[in-house]
Design brief:
The complex is a heterotrimer of chains A (466), B (205) and C (252).
Chain A: H1 4-11, H2 14-38, H3 42-58, H4 60-73, E1 77-81, H5 84-97, E2 102-105, H6 109-113, H7 116-122, E3 126-129, H8 132-139, H9 156-165, H10 175-192, E4 195-198, E5 202-204, E6 210-214, H11 218-223, E7 228-234, E8 238-239, H12 245-257, E9 264-268, E10 282-288, H13 292-295, H14 311-315, H15 317-322, H16 333-343, H17 345-352, H18 364-368, H19 375-388, H20 400-406, H21 409-418, H22 433-441, H23 451-458
Parallel strand pairs in A: 1-10, 2-3, 2-4, 4-7, 5-8, 7-10
Antiparallel strand pairs in A: 5-6, 6-9
Chain B: H1 2-17, H2 43-53, E1 57-59, H3 62-72, E2 76-79, H4 81-93, E3 97-99, E4 112-116, E5 119-121, E6 126-130, E7 145-151, E8 155-156, H5 159-164, E9 172-176, E10 181-182, E11 190-191, E12 198-204
Parallel strand pairs in B: 1-12, 2-3, 2-4, 4-7, 5-8, 7-12
Antiparallel strand pairs in B: 5-6, 6-9, 10-11
Chain C: E1 13-16, H1 20-24, H2 27-39, E2 43-45, H3 55-59, H4 63-76, E3 83-85, H5 88-101, H6 107-110, H7 113-117, E4 120-122, H8 123-130, E5 139-147, H9 157-167, E6 169-175, H10 188-192, H11 194-210, E7 215-218, H12 221-233, E8 240-242, H13 243-251
Helix pairs in contact in C: 2-13, 8-9, 11-12
Classes of the chains: A alpha/beta (466), B alpha/beta (205), C alpha/beta (252).
Bound molecules: iron/sulfur cluster (SF4).
Chain lengths: 466, 205, 252
């Protein structure tokens, strides 16, 4: 059985693969360009951001407490949710208390993670995604395949078809027309709903301000006409002070979309001001744990620095070939390969233990990560964890015999010379299926085992040991 | 609140596993300034340059705004009461009507909205809106054209300075850097998704 | 990976770690490394009992196996001479990988492994940043495309390779597009993910050929083995060799 990601990549249409690859290549290039244009040493900033975030999660208990106190003081209500179920119930409780029947949502990975939409719909609460990509995902009953560009896997023709199917106009593939139609459709939803649900990109412990960034303005619109605002935010999203936000906002926008700043960057720490006619009267913040506090105690805790910029997905060659859906979970690509096996705790580790193997360990993700997460190291640690726990994943190779050989110099030297026999074997008859596949596309060089050692002994040169 | 206590307990238990904790690094905020974006003659020039780069329209004369609105063919808009005096006559002359109360029922009728900006950031071409400066959030959000009127004294040079100057009493601060936009469909940039498709900033001397 | 910041041993008496790949397939690269080091004034020791850096097991997550191999390597390369490797990948195993797999191990358990990180150099990195060579003699009229191997990210190798090759009279260096993209080898990765790996390698070959080079040069034979293996099957093979082979050739 091939690795599921390999299988997914094989089955993926050439069109989708090209779309994902092109987008990845384009954004990767633009990211480098803007960082180099604006800063003398962008890598120093990535390291700084990583250090600030690491410091914060290393002191998460006190920062979380501080954020809670600051938010409460500013008039927001703070809730805590241990897991997905608890978070969903919490949101439902708030909505019911205010008798809300309709909800608009702005894109949030945390609410994706807890599968909030289907739950609310089941409770009879109309829930509408307002980010254009997420809206299309919702009407298609699809799932996002990229953190920042949820419909990177879709062609405009598919979007045109779903718009037609859902009564949003005649078949039209023009992205501008599609966007205008969504604009008209969704503003009606905003104006008729009772609550806006958002995520939160950062929370300043010092002021309690939650920071929300969107390019479309949908988070702003989810709040402006509504009485209730609920923000569902992972507990790791905290930063110490307002001024630290300069580090993260500058890096986030450049890493995610090659912008200096995301178009709408909002800093919110409570309900609207009394003088303001529009805006929520209640602000609720739901801090979500859902496995994060466990990850904090493990050797991959640095993954909690992640600010969900998607740069690692854009640059990742495996992601580019397989697309985000191949990773079978909310988060695809390098970040998903680390997070998915960890988020569900012990119970779901085996289910996702193959993800960390889907990498050539090329390290491109680490090079672009705005918070300098050593992703390849984590992939290795998770592989080791899988090995120790005896979780078998497709395509694992037993390495103990190799270790025996590599620690027995005489046997090693013999094998080097003896394996010359390989030159005479028809390679296509290689015994293992994957090896056969591999050799189907590649030619091996000529075996020259031991030649260098012989050359050393016979040459007239001045090498020290001859 | 059982979840709260459980989370704090788990966090603390997990933190015992980590090696003491990294210190909060000391850093020079000027390292975060995109210096090449600030090479113009002054704050406004830099702002105008960067605002223009994100498809914003910087303007310094009332007349510019008037002819822009005329060229857009609008006839009805929302205007902050405090700014009405300034705009009413000139707009009336060319047949454009403004109202100073935002009627939610008519959200689709406002073709433009004129509100006050609380500030602007030169480095990024960002207009700052707050609850106390914006007469109505919806007036700055639902119309296709938003005109932010900026008092010159409120120009700030950098993102870092803007963060440092947050008014603790403001519960909602919005930074708008150009018109609302998306690239969700095949990466093609479309301006004007949910919010304004045109963002104007008028400098008020 | 981030090797630049590490203070490492410098000496003109060095130990060569030939790498298992050169032991098995690329004798010429190991020979060239010896010649190049000698031309740079070094005396080269080649410990007989050397085998492999342990990376295949390490990458497979079998740290128990790879630690044993690392300990064997540490024993074979004991002492304090610089260890020179014609591979950024094997060098990275010493400089970074060992630290990770022994992360929580006490010093005694490591049996000298830690010392490897203080002495190991990728060969070009050593010539330039260790010995201070900035020019190379000889003449070769050639358009050379450089493939940076993934394990040299953040290390001094890329710059060193360009400094040396670029200083040879007649050599024109070509930078290939999307250089940050992996060639798709990744050891067992290419066996477990043959389809993805082939896709990656094919894109890399497209970028290489777009520059119309006379030859493709890298600091890692594993990448070149993979790329050439694919290129031959796709009938677009081009001359390829390790950077030290170019240096050796320039020596005449
Ligand atoms: S892991 Fe790093 S690069 Fe990937 S999404 Fe998170 S912050 Fe961005």
């Amino acid at each position: 059985m091939p690795n599921p990601i390999e299988q997914y990549a094989r089955d993926l249409s050439e069109e989708t693969r090209e779309a994902v690859r092109k987008s990845g290549a384009l954004t990767t290039g633009q990211r480098v360009e803007i960082l180099q244009k604006d800063y003398e040493d962008p890598d120093a900033l990535r390291r700084l951001a990583g250090e600030i975030k690491q410091h914060t999660i290393d002191h998460l208990d006190s920062y979380l407490e501080q954020a809670e106190a600051s938010l409460t003081k500013a008039g927001a209500k703070v809730h805590f949710a241990s897991d997905a179920d608890s978070a969903r119930q919490c949101v439902l409780g708030i909505l019911q208390q205010s008798d809300v029947q309709r909800v608009v949502k702005s894109k949030s990975m945390a609410t994706e993670e807890i599968h909030l939409n289907p739950f609310l719909e089941k409770q009879g609460i109309e829930t509408v995604e307002t980010d254009l990509g997420e809206f299309i995902i919702q009407i298609d009953e699809d799932t996002p395949s990229h953190i920042v560009r949820p419909i990177i896997h879709k062609k405009r023709e598919e979007v045109a078809e779903s718009f037609e199917k859902h009564g949003l106009g005649d078949y039209n593939t023009d992205p501008e027309t599609i966007t205008r139609r969504a604009r008209v459709h969704l503003r009606e939803k905003y104006m008729q709903s009772g609550a806006g649900i958002t995520g939160g990109n950062f929370v300043s412990a010092e002021s309690g301000r939650i920071v929300l960034v969107t390019n479309e303005g949908n988070a702003r619109f989810s709040m402006a006409p509504n009485k209730v605002h609920i923000a569902v935010i992972g507990i790791e999203k905290i930063v110490p002070r307002d001024r630290d936000l300069a580090v993260f906002l500058n890096l986030l926008a450049r890493s995610a979309t090659a912008q200096q700043l995301t178009v709408y960057t909002q800093f919110i720490k409570g309900p609207r001001m009394p003088s303001q006619p529009s805006g929520p009267e209640e602000m609720h913040v739901v801090f979500l744990d859902n496995g994060r506090s466990q990850i904090l105690g493990e050797s991959c805790r640095e993954i909690l620095r992640c600010i969900r910029c998607g740069a690692c997905q854009n640059v990742c060659p495996v992601y580019r070939h397989a697309s985000g859906h191949a990773y079978r979970a909310v988060y695809g690509g390098p970040i998903g390969a680390v997070l998915s096996p960890l988020l569900g705790g012990k119970a779901s580790f085996p289910e996702y233990a193959d993800l960390p193997k889907a990498s050539s360990l090329c390290g491109a993700c680490r090079e672009v990560c705005p918070v300098d997460i050593p992703i390849p190291d984590m992939l290795l640690k998770l592989r080791h964890k899988g090995k120790k726990q005896g979780v078998s994943t497709p395509g694992s190779f037993p390495m103990a015999p190799f270790a025996t050989l590599a620690t027995s110099p005489t046997a090693w030297r013999t094998a080097m010379t003896a394996a010359r026999a390989m030159n005479y074997l028809p390679m296509k008859l290689a015994p293992i299926k994957p090896l056969r596949d591999w050799l189907g596309d590649r030619t091996l060089p000529k075996w020259r085992g031991g030649d260098f050692r012989r050359w050393l002994k016979t040459r007239k040169g001045n090498n020290a040991d001859a | 609140m059982p979840d709260r206590d459980a989370i704090f307990k788990r966090v603390r238990t997990s933190l015992l596993q980590s090696s003491g904790g990294a210190p909060l690094p000391d850093y020079d905020p000027s390292a975060l300034v995109a210096k090449p974006r600030l090479t113009g003659a002054g704050l406004w020039e830099n702002f105008a340059q960067n605002f223009g780069a994100v498809s914003g329209r910087p303007m310094t004369e009332l007349g510019e705004v008037v002819s822009f609105l005329k060229s857009e063919g609008v006839s009805y808009g929302y205007c902050d009461l405090a700014l009405c005096e300034r705009f009413e006559t000139v707009l009336d002359e060319i047949g454009i009507e403004i109202v100073s109360t935002y009627d939610r029922e008519r959200y689709d009728d406002y073709q433009f909205g004129i509100t006050r900006a609380a500030g602007a950031i030169a480095e990024t071409g960002t207009v700052i809106l707050t609850d106390s400066s914006t007469s109505d959030r919806l007036g700055a959000l639902t119309p296709w054209i938003h005109i932010a009127v900026l008092p010159e004294a409120c120009l700030i040079e950098t993102v870092g300075e803007a963060l440092a100057s947050f008014d603790p009493d403001e519960t909602t601060i919005i930074w708008a850097t150009g018109p609302s936009k998306t690239a969700d469909i095949e990466g093609i940039l479309i301006e004007g998704v949910h919010g304004p498709g045109e963002q104007v900033c008028l400098l008020m001397l | 990976m981030a090797t630049q910041s590490i203070e490492r041993a410098v000496n003109t008496e060095v130990q060569l770690m030939m790498t298992c790949l050169c032991d098995a397939f690329y004798a010429g690269v190991a020979e060239a490394t010896v010649r190049v080091l000698e031309a740079a004034g070094c005396r080269v020791h080649v410990p007989e009992d050397q085998t492999c850096c342990g990376q295949p097991a390490f990458n497979g997550g079998d740290f128990e196996s790879s630690r044993k191999i690392a300990q064997h390597t540490a024993k074979v390369f004991s002492g304090d001479l610089p260890i020179i490797v014609p591979s950024g990948s094997c060098a990275a195993m010493h400089l970074h990988g060992n630290g990770l797999q022994f992360e929580n191990a006490p010093d005694e358990g490591q049996m000298g492994v830690r010392s490897l990180a203080k002495r190991t150099w990728e060969v070009c990195d050593f010539l330039v940043h260790g010995l201070g060579k900035t020019t190379w003699p000889g003449r070769l009229d050639r358009r050379v495309a450089i493939h940076d191997s993934c394990h040299t990210r953040g290390s001094g190798t890329g710059a060193a390779m360009r400094t040396l090759l670029g200083s040879i009279a007649g050599v024109e260096l070509l930078e290939i597009g999307q250089a940050e993209q992996c060639c798709g080898f990744g050891g067992t990765f290419s066996v477990t993910f043959p389809h993805i790996s082939t896709g990656m390698g094919t894109l890399k070959l497209d970028e290489v050929h777009a520059k119309r080079p006379d030859m493709l040069v890298s600091g890692d034979m594993s990448c070149l083995m993979h790329l050439n293996g694919l290129a031959e099957n796709q009938e677009r093979a081009l001359p390829h060799c390790h950077a030290v082979e170019v240096l050796a050739e320039a020596l005449g």
